[in-house]
Write the structure tokens for this entry.
Amino acid sequence: MQKMNSRNKPPLIPLNGPLRHTVDIGLILIGSLITALAFNLFFLPNKIASGGVSGLSVLAQAWFGAEPAFTQWALNIPLFILGVLILGKQYGARSLLGSFVLPLFIFLTKDGPIPTTNPLLASIYGGIGVGLGLGLVFRGRGSTGGLTILAQIIQKLSGLSFSMSVVLLDGTVITLAAFVLGMEQALYALIGLFVTGRVINALEVGFSYTKVAYIISDKTEDISQAILNDLDRGLTKLNAQGGYTGDDRTVLMVVVGQNEITRLKAIVRSVDPGAFVIITEAHEVLGEGFKREA
């Protein structure tokens, strides 16, 4: 079994019940505020409609002069009701808070300063801000409603995957942006949408600061003892079979931090210079000695 390093690790109080609920609400509120600020500081003044209901509100302002927050409420409310009817009350409860507070924060922060009028910088930094905010909302097991609800409805009724449904809806918004705002603005919107997705993904799966090493050697027992004693990391022994020889062998799997890779390679090399070592990235590791999910 994998024995992780737990030195200097204080006990973690699990988040559940009312405490978990409070943390979730806090994440949804903070994430919605960050999303609103990024929208008002970067996307809206530079007319970047990077998908979703927020993108439609940018188009509505450019076309009709409509207040973005009101446009978002006008779209979110019927979509929320439709989501409750088709997806169930449980989904609606999780989406109600974000669907309401995000347009509210957009309305309350609409008169802030504009950091840049460069659409490229706005699409990048707006994408980072929106991605960070939405990532926190998702961490709080919430949703900002809008086209996300519609994507899940399409998934349920049509059989399309959720990701494909999102791509189709966001693609429709960006296509509209090309007609309303021009092709160049639509291209900037694509950049913003891409950056947003990457930041959300980074928050969901974590950053690659942890590595997984697979060690194949005829001296696995000696290497495992050296790792346990000198590196103070646990390991897992995997049963494997050689593809060419068909011989049974043991493969060691070790999870280490970025700063421990050099020491691990030195330990393996000192025991068996001919050992075969594979090192890959682990985007997120949960458990004793590493991050523990609340």
Notes: The first strand starts at residue 210 and ends at 216. The CA atoms of residues 173 and 259 lie 44 Å apart.
